[in-house]
Every structure is written in structure tokens, then in C-alpha cells.
Amino acid sequence: MVGRFVRGALVVVVVLAAMAGNAAHRIYHDRQDSEQRHYAMVRDMARLVDDHVHRTIHAADVALDQTASMVAEAGGTARVRDLKHWTRLREYAAHVEGAEALWVFDADGRSVLESASFPNRVMRIADRESFQALHNGARMYIGGGLAGRPGLQPLVFSVSRPLHDDEGRFVGVVAAAIRLDHLTNFYELLGFEFDPLIGVYRPDGEVIARRPATEASVGRSVSGGVLFQTKLREAPEGQYLSPSLLDGVTRIAAYRTVRDYGLVVLTGIGQDEAMAAWRTRTLHTVLEAAAGLLAVLAALGWGWRYLDRERKAQVELAEARTTVERTSAERDESARMAAALDHARGMAEAAQRAAETANRAKGEFLASLSHELRTPLNAVIGFADLIAREAEGPVGVPSYRQYAANVRDSGQHVLELINEILDHARADAGALRIEEERCDLETAADFALRMLTPRAERAGVTLAAAVAPAVRHLRGDDRRLRQILLNLIANGVKYTPAGGSVTLSATLDEGVPTIRVTDTGLGIPSEDIDRVLEPFARVEIAAHRQADGTGLGLPLTKRLVELHGGTLSLRSTLGVGTTVTVRLPRERLLSGPTPPPARIDAVPPPGPGHGPGTAPAITPVNGVAGPLSILLVDDDPTVRDMVANLLRGWGHRITEAANANEALVVLDGPEPLDLLLSDVVMPPGMDGTELARQAARMRPGLPVLLASGFAAHAVADTAAFGSDVTMVAKPFSIDELRAQLARIAGRLAAVPPVSAVPAIPAPATPVPPPAAPAVTGAARLLIAEDLAINRELLAAVFRDSGYRIDLVADGAAAVEAVRTGDYDLVLMDVQMPGMDGLEASRIIRSMPEPRGGIPILALTAGSSDHERRQCRDAGMDGHIGKPYDRDVLLRQVARALAASLNRASSPSG
Question: Measured between alpha carbons, how far is residue 332 from residues 110, 327, 740 in Å?
């Protein structure tokens, strides 16, 4: 018996050692995986910061070149100290993101001109290292941090270059002062889970910008650290683990050398912070192993006591009976543990499947988001480049006005996507709150219809709404209720074909306020109704593929409804349409005036010359409180005249301005003003939101009404624009405009008019850069692109290239064109409805020579290795990413044509 116990003890020791070894193995590999993930994370962060710093310095370099050209044209630094050259300098500064000011200094280091003020502040830089270096022949100097403009005192760094006359003599310096926080704080928009280190250093190790502890770090040197002593000498980019010279924190870090400018960027996360989750998991693993060890030891002690009792009793029959009972109990326990193990294994497999599904959904969302952002940015950058190069002729050519409208609409699309993503992120973090107030549902419905009517008219969809008097007045967040209606109606318009309709109705249903939005659109399969209310989910059926979006609109709307204590539900039939029903708590009903039921129909179409959704549907009405002195700003003369005549008919005094430049002159003058009424979108130059900020500075307390026809502006937080800024929708509502003027007149009854204070003059029109040289040749190109705006962009890009261009809208048309025509090269969009670019390329490659061997270049917003591999597997010869760079695009086309010609002329070809 003792021998059996000894053998059992040895088995227990082996089991204990195996359990401890397994726990140590798990802890070790978990640490390795955690470190690798965090190194990959900081490498990606370093790449982002590198690109951001390079773009910022490059933009400053371009602005300095433009300023140097301006000084040379004027005949020297002494001849640029006037208002005309100041306005040009201010325009150059506006193109540098994060710029505090552009400066011009003479050969003695005295300030001559500054974009932030006129006349400029007095400053001398003759004793600065940057001035001496530029005087001694340096082409560019990037300096360290220093204080910016008096009063605000932001930290800035300088990028400067020398000025020379026609004979090469040094005549001065031009410099750009850029805010340090522009280099570091942009990463906070991504909602990163850690508090990362982001640093930018000069080649000698001096700190230009750093977060955290920006002010304490700027100007200090880290040249004695591992980065500059070892790592940069080994490679221009890499990663390492080391304590910081500045704060002593040990970080997982990655560094990169900024191309062209020699700066070094560094990103990192604290090792303690990064490994906190690993330490928690390690503690759990140790506790689990300890519990297992204690259980085994307890079983061993129990066995020892049991044998001791049996040895003393020396009753063989009792020992045998006890042995049988123990064996039976162990068998039952083994069966129970086996069943529990099977159950746990099933739960683990289910959890793993759920995690894999979630990861796939996340990947699909990120891919969709990348494509959604890149596609409109392609138009923004492409058309902006055409305008900057004056590809169509001097400013004033009708094509430019259409290009500007395209840029505006694409930029607005990006803004709406970003707003949806940020709202959803705040909702997930529990930071989304509602502000309770009295709301007028009829006014909100009218507001939503007026905002979305231009979009509906372009889609050929009719809008209508009816609000019952019993539910007109509610308690809630007015801005979020408007966002709910805007999202639901916009979603209906998006999925409703031309000739359909979207209808909003608000009624009292069994004592509960109920809002229904019904469309006659494509509908949703019954099995996907629950999915469309989940974040990032999209219904993948052929009819929906042409509709843009991230899949956040309905989930975000549902979250906003739930914040009001309500519910949102869907009912849909394929091919018939969809009804979204919102039910709010009856406690949100408020008593109030109950006018006769009113029907709100679609607003009349906009007037000519101002774009969709901006012309007011108004008629003169008398009786508005006043009179007020109003500065009216709108770049559309038709709209400006209509609104001015209406307001004068109400007895108000009106001063008109066609743009922000004219408005700034009025604000800077002595004329008393009671109100600024401005359009938001006034391209090009300063828009309405920036004008509101300038008005708040120049005339503190001046009320501002900002008018916009875009939904993203309608639900914006206007508190950031000034102390008394209100957003109103275009086309205007007579009742809303009357109510706003009455509110302002009542408030001003006891307050003196706002007096004028000095201001900055308005900027002038910038001087466009010279156009890029055209590519010559007589080749015939076929371009397949489903989006009309991108076809228009590509046609404009190739217009002066010398190539002959044919445009088609889908893959099937591209295949037919290649089959029947003679082309030298095909530019093929990858994602197109019906037959996509990959399938079209495979069909072309199956054709007999020479058509089957025609060069094909992919056009796509995707940039992953998987997407590039798909293009190669489909037979494509190259990849051109969106947004397009005209010079790169033309070079790749020329390279592909040359390669094809070489293959055709070679003996083996």
C-alpha cells in the first residue's frame, strides 16, 4: 500500500511540473505576441506621422517658392510692403495647413511683410541661426520651436529659404511659421486607445515637436540617446525599446527619416501601458495554475489521511468496499467532467466563430471606408489640380465653375461620412448626449425636406411630409431630432429609383408619438432586416451595390432614437419599399398651440447659377420686428437680390456683399450692424464659417445667421463658430427667418449696436501656378469608369495629352469596345456594377491576339496587397491608385505603351 502511495506521489509531482511548465509556456508566447503587435502598431503610426510631416513641409516649401517669386516680380523686398502684395501673401499662407503666418525679411533681418497682420509686426532675425545659415548659402532651414503671435502664444516652428536678386546676391529671407500642434495632435482624431509619443526632430537631435509635454520638450536635444547614437547610423528607419532621455519612460518605439527634408519622426507607446493587458492575462494564468496545483495537493493530502485510517483499521473488507465506492465515485466524476469539458469546448468554438465573423466584418468595413473616402477625394484632388494649373484657360471659363461644384459636392460627401463615423465612435464610447429643449416636429420636418430636396430632385424622387398637430411639440434634442429625420429621408432617397417617392408622417398612435418614413425603393430581404441595424453591416445584393455608404446611417439613427427613450423598427418588402417606424415615449409630448394640420411638400427647385439646394423659396411678407441693420453675404446675385428685397420689404436696412472679402471691408468700417446673414458655401476663398469667426473677433457680440443647403452643416455644432451663431436651412422658410429676426430684434432692444473694430483686409485672388507640360503621342486609349464625375475628370486630364480617348461606363461595354475597336491601351476601373473590371480583364485576355495582349492598367481606390494580387491574377499589367496624380498617371500610361511597343518589335514577340 505504501508503495502504491509512493508511485502516486511521483505521478502527482509530474502532473504539477507539467501544469507549471504549460503556464510558463503560455505566458512567454503571449508576451512575444503582445510585443510584436505593439511594434507593428508603432511602425504604422510612424508611417502616418512621416507622411503628415512631409506633406506639411512640402506645402510650406511651395508657399515659400511662390512668395520668393512674388518678391522677384515686385523688384525686391522694399517694394512688397503694400496691401496688394500682403493679400497675395495671405492667400499663399492659406494653402499651408497649420500655418500661423508667412514672413518676408530684408537683407538685414528686419521684417517687411507678414500674412497675419498689416502693417506687420516688427521683428528682427539677423542674430538667429537660421538667418546666418541662409545668408551663408543654405537652400532651406527648418528651425526649432518658438512662441508665435502675441496674445495667443502658440508654439510654432519655422521653415525658411533665402531670397536672391537676378545677379544671385542675398537680399532677404522668406519664412513660414507653422504650429507645432499641427504635427502632433492630428493623431488624436483616430481615437487611439493608448497615449502615444509623437516626436519630430532635427538631424542634430533638437526637438522640433513632441507630445506629450510639448512646451517642456521643444528646443531640447536627444542627440545622446539610442536613436541618434546607434539606430539612425544603422538604418534610416526601424524600431527599438529604450528609455527616453526627456522623461525616462521606457517605450516601444519606431522611427523614420522624412524624405527630402532630413527630419526624423518617432512614435512610441509606453512599455508599461502597452503590456498592461498582458500582465493582467499573466496574473489570471498564474492564479489558474496555482488553483490547479492547490487542488492536486489537496487531493494528495486527502489520500494520505485516507490510507492512514485504513492502515490503522486493518479491515480488509472495509478497505475493499471503500475502494469500490471510491472507484464508482471517480467514474461518475470523470463522466461529469467529460460532459462539462465537451460543453466548454462547444462554447469556445462558438466564441471563436463569433470572433472570426466580427473580424471579417471589421475588415470589410475598413475596406469599404477606404474606398468610400478615396473615391470622392479622387475628384476633389483631381479637379483642384486642373483649376490650379488653369488647364481650361483663365479663371472665368464655364468649365471651372462646374469643376468647383464637383469639388464642393465630393468634399461634402467626405464630410458626411466622417461625421457619421465620429458620431458612431462617440456613441460607442458613451459620450453621445442629448440636450433637452422644446422641439417643433413640423419645423424639423420642413427643415429636413428643404435640405434634401435638391438631392431628391437629382435622383428623380418626390418628397412629402405631414405632421399631425397632436405630435407637433415634443421635448428632446432639436438638433438630434433633425439628424434622425435627415438620416431616414436621405436613406430612403438613396435606395429609391427615379420616379419613386419618400414620405414622412408623424401621428399619435395609441397615445404614443410615432414617426414613419416610407419609400417605394428597392427593399431589404427579410433575413437581412436585423443586420442593417448593426454597425458596419451592408446588404450585399446586386441592386444595392451602386449605393454609397459605410453602413452607419441606420445604426446611428437607432442609437439617437434610443437616447430619447424610443425604439426604431423596420418593415420591408423586396421590390416594393421600406417603412422605418420611430416610437418615442408619450412623456415627450408637450402641450402647445395646435394650428390646423399642414402638409409639407417638396420645396421648389433651386434658382439658376447657385447649385443644388441653395436658392430660397420665399415671398415678401410684412410685419417682422425691427428694423435691423443687416449685412447680407451671398455669392449668388440672384439669391442675394431676392433675400435683400424681402428684408427691405420688412423694413430692414440691408448692406450687400458678394463674398467674404467685401464683408470684411464692411465689418472693418464704421457702419453700425445688428446682424450678419451669410451663406456657408462660397467657393473659392473664405467660407461662411470662417467669416463668422472673423466677425466674432472684429465685432464681439454681433449675432450671425449661417445659411446652408447641406445636411452635414445642418446638424453641426455651431458653438465653435462664435458666441451667437445660428444655422438656418436653405431654401429659406419664411416663418423660420421671421422668427430668427424677431428673436434678434428682441435681444438687441436692450443692447447697444455692435461697434466696429479694426480688422484684417480681405485676401485677393491667388496667382495660379503654370500648367504642366502635356504628353504627346497618337495612341488610342479606352477608359472604363462607372462614375460620371471620374469620367469627366479623366477626360479633362487627357484632354491636352495628345492621346485619343474613348470612355465607357462598365466592364461589359469595355469588352465590346475592345472586341470591335483598335486600342493601344485600356484603363480599367476595378469596382463597377454588373461586370466589374477584373471579370472584364479576364474576358479580354481570352481573346485572340492582338486584342488579347492589349496592355490593361487597373484604376482603383484599393491599395492592399490582396487587391493588387487580384489585379495581376486577372491579367492586368499595372495598378494606378486613386486619387490620381496627373504626372504619375501620364508617366505610367507612357511606360505601359512603350513596354507594349518593345514586346511587339522584339524578335521573340
Answer: 95, 9, 80
| Cα–Cα distance, 482 to 480 (Å, whole number) | 5
Angle (CA) 419 453 686, round 5°: 55
Look up the pTM and report it: 0.37
Spatial distance between the Cα atoms of 640 and 28, rounded to a whole number of angstroms: 71
Q: How far apart are CA 343 and CA 748, in angstroms?
A: 73
Report the amino acid identity of residue 732.
Answer: F
Q: How far apart are CA 672 and CA 658, in angstroms?
A: 19
- Measured in degrees and rounded to the nearest 5, phi and psi for residue 860 equal -155, 150
| Three-class SS state of 483 | helix
Query: What does the block give as the cell for 589?
Result: 409630448
Q: Write out pLDDT tens, residues 736-788.
A: 788 888 888 887 775 544 444 333 333 333 333 333 333 344 789 999 998 88
At residue 360 the predicted structure's pLDDT band, cuts being 50, 70 and 90, is low
Class of the CATH-defined domain 780-905: alpha beta
* 264-270: strand order across its sheet: 207-211, 197-201, 264-270, 250-257, 237-243
What is the 3-state secondary structure of 851-867? HHHCCEEEEECCCCHHH
- Separation between Cα atoms, residue 332 and residue 325, nearest integer Å: 11
Name the CATH topology of 34-295: Beta-Lactamase (3.30.450)
Residue 329 exposed, middle or buried by CB count within 10 Å (0-12, 13-18, 19+)? exposed
373-417 tens-digit pLDDT: 656 655 665 566 556 555 555 666 666 656 666 676 666 666 566
CA angle (160, 161, 162) in 5-degree steps: 135
What is the assigned CATH class of domain 629-748? alpha beta
Fold classified for 433-597: Heat Shock Protein 90 (3.30.565)
- Taking CA atoms, 352 is separated from 32, 280, 281, 340, 347, in Å, by 21, 21, 18, 18, 9
Taking alpha carbons only, the member of 267, 249, 252 closest to residue 187 is: 267
DSSP letter, residue 138: -
Distance CA 613, CA 603 (A): 9
Neighbours of 807 (CB within 10 A): 19
